[in-house]
Amino acid sequence: MNDGFDLILRSLTPDSAEPADEAAMLDLIAARVSELIADEPDLLFSYMYRLDIDQDKIEEALIPGNEPVEMQLARLILTRQMQRLATKARYKVGPIDGWEY
Hints:
The longest helix has 22 residues, at 69-90. The protein is an all-alpha fold. The mean pLDDT is 84. The chain contains five helices and no strands. The protein has helices spanning 3-12, 22-39, 41-50, 55-61, 69-90.
């Protein structure tokens, strides 16, 4: 697995359990998305907005199709997180002088 995938994986799984692959990670994300759809849909879409997931892609995922909505949204979330991590790695910024904490 690459570093970005591992970082996302660690943030999603408890210390005692670790999914072995992308499919397991998608299942974890889809389970959480399903909970949010049922209990707090506004919060889910707020998260997706903050992740800067394209609105057109979200709307397309909400159209019933072959794959459950929560899995389609999970795929969008995982893809976007991987993009964000790749961008952060590419444009690393060192500490700013005078901003020590």
